Amino acid sequence: MKRYVGVDIGGTDIKFGIFTETGQIMDKWHVSTDIRGQGKNLWNQIIMEICVHTENGKDVKGIGVGVPGPVQKDGFVEVCVNLGIGNFNPKEILGRIFPKTTIAVGNDANVAALGEMWQGSGQGYENLVVVTLGTGVGSGVIIDGKIVYGAKGMSGEIGHMMVNPDETDLCTCGGRGCLDQMASATGIVRYTKSLLVQKCASTRLNHQEPLTARIIFDAARAGDRLAAQGVEHCLSFLGKSLAFVSYVIDPDIFVIGGGVSRAGDYLIEIVQKYYNQYSVLKKEKARIVLASLGNDAGIYGAARMVMEEKRGKNENISGSL
Amino acid sequence: MKRYVGVDIGGTDIKFGIFTETGQIMDKWHVSTDIRGQGKNLWNQIIMEICVHTENGKDVKGIGVGVPGPVQKDGFVEVCVNLGIGNFNPKEILGRIFPKTTIAVGNDANVAALGEMWQGSGQGYENLVVVTLGTGVGSGVIIDGKIVYGAKGMSGEIGHMMVNPDETDLCTCGGRGCLDQMASATGIVRYTKSLLVQKCASTRLNHQEPLTARIIFDAARAGDRLAAQGVEHCLSFLGKSLAFVSYVIDPDIFVIGGGVSRAGDYLIEIVQKYYNQYSVLKKEKARIVLASLGNDAGIYGAARMVMEEKRGKNENISGSL
After folding, report:
1. Do A248 and B156 make contact, defined as CB atoms within 8 angstroms?
2. N or C: which end of chain A has fewer CB within 10 A?
3. CB-based contacts of B229: which residues, under 8 Å, 6+ apart?
């Protein structure tokens, strides 16, 4: 039976999924990412895992790989900042081991977006943006059902829109006032801590160490005023940024995933409120919804990506995509 | 000889161009827009002009029409705010008169973008944004050589990104702080007038009535400090907005057209400076250049659009696009 492998390379884990042509998941698993040897170990891990789980690639028609960095059109990856590796092309590396198998490579945020479109909250839409709120703010942009890569593979970097002119700290990118500094898990904790220092207010967040985004959201939902103030201020920048995105490409829907999105409808309502406020011209507002595939979005999207690549080449694949 | 007609409907003029399959312009002309009769006169004008200039549509294989409003996928136009007309579908109206001719319809900013990509400053690029600085700020977004329409035909409305939190006046959209209020011709005049009132400075702009964007740019270039300050402040918001656009779709190039762009390299240098400042993450910055087709971008783009529509339908057309 023909099958497709989706691989999602993350800083902590490498996730794997095996899918049928029609999108059923047959198997999924993960291993800890081994970044020693400037990436060499990582590729050995990936090759071995695929071989062990598929009888050396038997019936595997395609392998899709999501990597945490910008990907050039030919599959080359110059750098994955968070992994500290770079200068590799998964198409070549995996192509040498699986010469009869189509290999596709994409940026992890883009690939996750494709997954949500295919089997998650974005089903039925062809114009969508999937935003991942984790240690940073990433996004994948899909137009007419296709991932937008951009000229240098740098589309969807909305985390570095400089939307907060009052910011005084530097962002990791070297700028100041990036969305990333406000709406990521790190950003929400950082800003709320600054409120704690300023306000000396009575709040259940005092003496919470380590303070996490989850604790802040839980307190906010339970009615803690300082926590709610922190969350609302941080998410107002996300709503504003999504309005900016909307004025550029006018998507049908925004899908919000990543760890921070576990805050659920409480988060969505605030983001939608500010999105509406900053997108006055649009009579019909884009919907903002929660992602539904969780950590599996990447493996779904990677598998879907390679199926699309095969279809683009007119290789034999059922028309069920 | 097969030919294509490009029509660009504007508030003042309707422009027409006749093109060969390979993009040579054979004829161009314009008439004053007649918006009486809720648009009825306008369509009679267009039909008559095409008939007179093409022997009733002889050898015309396609007619492309750019309209100043959002266009739905089937060609329907709900409203053209500036013309005060709406609820029409040029495909139906022109299709009744020219039943054997392919008709394509697009938003004027998108169509102008296609023109610049085809025969103007965007030649050789497939990912570009063409920004028109006139009474408002419009833009057309092209990805992989294709116009991005967006879910509701509302892509490229970057003029309504709310980028100036210090703004107190209302924008025409009902919002406050839109790019349109700063970087359009109207916005530059408005802001510079406010500086004149505040500063009581010695400037050659005093007693210039009516004050226009052109006069302000001329003074700025000639060393007038207040004029230069006004221009730089206004254009800083354009640079910032283009950086936001870049973080969404990462185009190769921005092409700046419209009346205000006559300020030339002086304008480009300021916009590029602020664009670079707000796009810190990007090592290779997108280039910002002047448009080159001027007022003809719309007719070129409209013709190109209908050629593409024919090609999409696999109708007989040479492969020279």
Report:
1. yes
2. N
3. B195
Q: Say what the pTM is.
A: 0.89
CB contact under 8 A, B248 and A158: yes
Pick among A250, A279, A282 to test the B interface (most B CBs inside 10 A): A250
Q: How far apart are the first and last CA of chain B?
A: 17
Q: CB distance B247–A161 less than 8 Å?
A: yes
A-chain residues near B243 (CB < 8 A): 161-162
Full pLDDT tens readout for chain A, 321 residues: 899 999 999 888 999 999 998 889 999 999 999 988 878 899 999 999 999 999 999 999 999 999 988 888 889 998 887 788 888 999 999 999 999 999 999 999 899 999 999 999 999 999 999 999 988 899 999 999 998 989 888 899 999 999 999 999 999 889 999 999 999 999 999 999 999 988 767 888 888 889 999 999 999 999 999 999 999 999 999 999 999 999 999 999 999 999 899 999 999 999 999 999 999 988 889 999 999 999 899 999 999 999 999 887 755 444 333
Measured in angstroms, the CA of B152 and the nearest CA of chain A are apart by: 7
Strands B13-20 vs B25-32: parallel, antiparallel or unpaired: antiparallel
The backbone region for B177, taken as left when phi is positive above 0, alpha when psi lies in -120 to 50, beta otherwise, is: left
Contact residues, chain B, for A113 at CB < 8 Å: none
Hey, which residues does B254 pair with through a beta bridge? B129, B288
Using the Cβ of A248 and the Cβ atoms of chain B, whether some distance falls under 8 Å is answered with yes
Q: In the structure encoding, which two tokens stand for residue A183, read together?
A: 């709406």
| Encoded tokens for A229 | 């103030």
Query: What stretches of chain B show up as alpha helix (H) in DSSP?
Result: 40-54, 90-97, 108-119, 180-183, 185-199, 213-221, 225-249, 265-278, 297-312
Q: For residue B268, give the 3-state DSSP assignment.
A: helix
**Interface probe, candidates B149, B245, B249, chain A, greatest A C-beta count within 10 A:** B249
In sequence order, what DSSP letters do the residues of B31-87 get, joined into one string? EE---TGGGHHHHHHHHHHHHHHHTTTTTEEEEEEEESS-B-TTS-EEEETTTTEEE
Where do we find the tokens 């709310």?
B162
How far is the alpha carbon of A150 from chain B, nearest alpha carbon, in Å? Answer: 5
Amino acid at A220: A
Which chain A positions have a beta carbon within 8 Å of B236's beta carbon? none
- Supply the ipTM of this predicted assembly: 0.89
Measured CA to CA, the distance from residue B100 to residue B109 in angstroms comes to 27
CA gap B321, B119 in Å, rounded: 11
What is the distance in angstroms between the Cα of B301 and the nearest Cα belonging to chain A?
A: 19
Point out the residue among B157, B174, B250 whose CB comes nearest to the CB of A152: B250
